[in-house]
Amino acid sequence: MNQKLTIALTKGRILKETLPLLRAAGLSPVEDIDMSRKLLFETEHPDIRLVILRGSDVPTYVRHGAADLGVVGKDMLLEFGADGLYEPLDLGIARCRLMTAGFPDREPVQGRIRVASKFVHVAQSHYASRGVQAEIIKLYGAMELAPLMDLADEIVDVVDTGNTLRANGMAPLEHIADISTRLIVNKAAMRTRHGVIEGAIAAISDAIGSGETR
Ligand code: AMP
Questions:
Q1: 53, 31, 34: which is closest to 44 by C-alpha?
Q2: Quick one: which atom of ligand 1 is closest to the CA of 12?
């Protein structure tokens, strides 16, 4: 028998907003993901299973074919690349913006600007495209802390309401990209498992269109 089709989901905020879409598409997990420590879940579809990952790992699993499809933020695709992947659907969820941010009234930086981010590649190419010399400092969380502690002059982060920035005396400065959650597909799997993948894409696309989930 053929192996099941595997969809890699991004845990956290994106997972919460993905589950209603999967339900409308007939792809609900058969167990409550929140109540389990498991990472692999069967769905109500006999040929499709789910795996729950960090967003930064979803493109890797799908690129290598360990998962056939993935649900991941565009920010992760911009940072980690989309080689070997198709991006057939914008799920329209977890919308936000990739921005630079900092103290609005700060003196201009002399020399290289220090930028803290987990989006190292995005930050590097943004400042390079503006002809600004930047030293990028890799962080894994709480980017807002870096300017407060004088680790960095600016940060590159995803911003939704901007409340977190404002609460820390900062403001969004430059817009880099609009972000939303995308469905991605392994290019080789798209050829070899075309029928079942097209079926899953169509079901998820109909679920987005139905508006039942929002
Ligand atoms: P905000 O609403 O701008 O205060 O965002 C709250 C926190 O959640 C910030 O630290 C953001 O980095 C993060 N955040 C906002 N929107 C998203 C999203 N769509 N995906 C992941 N993280 C987000």
A1: 31
A2: 21
pTM: predicted TM-score of the whole model, two decimal places: 0.94
Number of the ligand 1 atom closest to the C-alpha atom of 181: 19
Dist. CA 117–CA 141, nearest whole Å: 8
What tens digit of pLDDT does each residue of 131-168 get?
A: 999 999 999 999 999 999 999 999 999 999 999 999 99
Q: Do 21 and 213 form a contact (C-beta atoms < 8 A)?
A: yes
Q: How many domains does the chain have?
A: 2
Report pLDDT digits (tens) over 175-190.
999 999 999 999 999 9
Q: Which domain holds residue 46?
A: 5-94+180-210
Whether residues 100 and 83 fall in one domain = no
Determine which residue's CA is closest to atom 10 belonging to ligand 1: 164
Q: What is the CATH number of the domain that holds 27?
A: 3.40.190.10
